[in-house]
Write a structure and sequence with these properties.
CATH topology of the largest domain: Sulfite Reductase Hemoprotein, domain 2
Mean pLDDT: 87
Number of strands: 19
Helix content: 10-25%
Distance between the termini: 43 Å
Structural class: alpha+beta
Order of helices and strands: HHEEEHEEHEHEEEEHEEEHEEHEHEEE
Radius of gyration: 21 Å
Strand order of the largest sheet: 1-2-5-4-13
Shape: globular
Strand content: 15-25%
Number of domains: 3
């Protein structure tokens, strides 16, 4: 790891950090030269020229589905056919990913699709323009990213990503792992919609504002509030009861949801509480957070976490390989950023100076933190514009608050706060109400 970073540093420290608009344009030129599957291809690119291959003898042949008559939320096995080809979404419970797993996904993206990996608003990773979805599934499985074929789309857990390292009421890392295991071992939860979210907030109020369907918000080190759709039910849970309670709520929802995809769509959530009795005032909510933790973050144990925002959530596979080369634990956050944990100061300093010229953002005042976008054209057939290009151009015209650019009224990836701007073909309109 040290040799890779040192060689990279020697090359990259002489590069002047580009201005925001210039950075985007340079990325366009670079990607059009090295990859026909880039997320912003040259005008002559044609994603549809690539057939989707599915080897007949692949072990995941029966699981990788192209047509669905129920929940269309994609996974690593049940993919979505986008305008630029197949799209696979790999779940990362709590956003946790090892260096080897990130390197494996970067390899899969480069070998079988676009090297432009997408970070989602739930802390997952998407691969686009795939030509061999079975090959991607096999790589993900070999890396330990598909522990359950039946439950792979429902392992949606957002959790305070800095927990156990920087602040927080309590360390929830063990609970997240326990919750993930419990989800996989409950057969009924295989029927949950792919967009159902579990949430665990360590008390710092960073993820409770995301309004997860079934959530726990720690009020004290060993006591948590049970949340439904981001709202306090008044039920108080001992730490040992958090995972069983979340599983119970999700199981009841799976059995009674009817046509509802999310708990917020239910008119009455009381039946989901079952045997749990409120013992405190109910109804409290937490404001959503829209900006990720970025920069040099001292840990409680004296080591360093590096927080890197990823412009528009697009992480190039080559940059992912540099991140993996550091050899440290990683997390993808719900704000489309990356955290690199447990670094000595010297390693953190070298890594920062290597990664910043590659386009990652370590400046908490960067305008990149105030814009986001859906995929847009040409990747999405529903989009009326290249919204990522327009979002990048908007950096030259700062505005108060966060702006999310979308290509249609579905408003994919919209954060819980800020303006959502919908492309009309000749400009943008403010979407009301907020998604």
């Amino acid at each position: 790891m040290g040799e890779i970073l040192d060689r990279s540093l020697a090359t990259l420290t002489s590069i002047q950090l580009p201005v925001y608009r210039g950075q985007y344009l340079l990325m366009q030129v670079w990607q059009s030269q090295i990859s026909p599957n880039s997320w912003h291809p040259a005008p002559c690119s044609n994603f549809r020229r690539y057939p989707v291959a599915q080897p007949a003898d692949a072990p995941y042949r029966d699981r990788v589905a192209r047509i669905r008559d129920r929940d269309a939320c994609p996974g690593a096995l049940q993919v979505h056919q986008a305008a630029d080809g197949a799209l696979a979404r790999v779940r990362l419970p709590g956003g946790v990913i090892s260096p080897g797993q990130l390197e494996a996904l970067a390899h899969a993206a480069t070998k079988f699709g676009s090297p432009a990996m997408e970070l989602t608003s739930r802390g997952n990773i998407q691969l686009r323009a795939l030509t061999d979805t079975v090959g991607v599934a096999e790589i993900a499985a070999a890396a330990g990213l598909l522990p359950s074929q039946t439950h792979e789309r429902v392992r949606n857990i957002v959790a305070s990503p800095l927990s156990g390292r920087v602040g927080g009421m309590t360390d929830i890392r063990g609970l997240v792992a326990e919750l993930d295991e419990a989800i996989q071992t409950e057969p009924a939860l295989a029927e949950l919609p792919g967009r159902f979210i579990f949430g665990v907030d360590d008390g710092r109020a960073d993820v409770s504002g995301l309004a997860a369907d079934a959530g726990a918000h720690f009020l004290y080190e060993a006591t948590a509030a049970l949340l439904l759709a981001g709202r306090d039910t008044g039920v108080r849970l001992d730490r040992a009861d958090v995972v069983p309670a979340l599983i119970a709520v999700a199981t009841r929802f799976a059995a009674t949801r009817g046509k509802a995809w999310r708990i917020a769509e239910l008119t009455d959530t009381t039946p989901l509480l079952g045997q749990f009795t409120p013992s405190a005032e109910h109804g409290a909510t937490w404001p959503p957070i829209s900006r990720p933790p970025v920069g040099w973050l001292p840990q409680d144990d004296g080591r360093i976490t590096l927080g890197a925002a990823v412009p528009l959530g697009v992480l190039q596979a080559r940059v992912a390989e540099f991140l993996a080369a550091i050899g440290a634990p990683l997390a993808i956050t719900p704000w489309r950023s990356v955290l690199v944990f447990d670094l000595d100061e010297g390693v953190a300093d070298t890594a920062l100076r290597v990664l910043a010229p590659l386009g990652l953002v370590f400046d908490g005042n960067s305008p990149w933190l105030s814009v986001s976008a859906c995929t847009g054209s040409p990747g999405c057939e529903h989009s009326a514009a290249d919204v990522r290009a327009d979002a990048a151009a908007a950096l030259d015209d700062p505005a108060d608050g966060h702006r999310h650019f979308v290509g249609c009224d579905r408003a994919c990836g919209s954060p819980p706060t800020g303006d959502v701007l919908v492309a009309t073909g000749d400009g943008y309109r403010l979407r009301t109400p907020h998604p």
